[in-house]
Automatic annotation (TrEMBL):
Assigned protein family: Belongs to the RutC family.
Gene Ontology MF annotations: deaminase activity
Name used for this protein in its record: Reactive intermediate/imine deaminase
Pfam families for the chain: Ribonuc_L-PSP
GO cellular component: cytosol
InterPro entries documented for this protein: RidA, RutC-like_sf, YjgF/YER057c/UK114
NCBIfam families linked: Rid family detoxifying hydrolase (TIGR00004)
Signal peptide coordinates: none
Domain of life where this protein originates: Bacteria
Gene (UniProt): yjgF
Length: 126
């Protein structure tokens, strides 16, 4: 059975999907982009600020499900330009311990929703 996870502390979906689905003890988040949930505006000042907003949005969804980044077992990072890898990786890395970091892939794509530079999704287990 699946439970829909939703919080006003993360951006509302911009299509026919939910912020996350909890199935048993496993949480599957939709990809988060850098929309500030309070203003509805994109945070695109710098790639660092953009990545920080993405991670804060993921944190809000994890919190709503009663989880933290320690529960994350898998992440997927989508970048529209691999030249941004170092900056995004630095922000991302601040949310995980090297000893318990999740599995991950980083993929370059031609474009992302709303033409942002980064989108990240996670899978977490209680």
């Amino acid at each position: 059975m699946k439970k829909i996870i939703t919080t006003p502390k993360a951006p509302a979906p911009i299509g026919p999907y939910n912020q996350a689905i909890l199935s048993g003890n496993t949480l599957y988040t939709s990809g988060q982009i850098a929309i500030n949930p309070e203003t509805g505006e994109l945070v695109l000042d710098t790639i660092t600020k953009e990545a920080e907003q993405v991670m804060q949005n993921l944190k809000a969804v994890l919190d709503e499900a009663g989880m933290t980044f320690e529960n994350v077992i898998k992440t997927t990072i989508f970048l529209n330009d691999m030249n941004n890898f170092s900056e995004v990786n630095a922000v991302y890395g601040a949310y995980f311990s090297d000893d318990t970091a999740p599995a991950r892939e980083t993929v370059a794509v031609a474009a992302l929703p709303k033409f942002v530079n980064v989108e990240i999704s996670v899978i977490a287990v209680k």
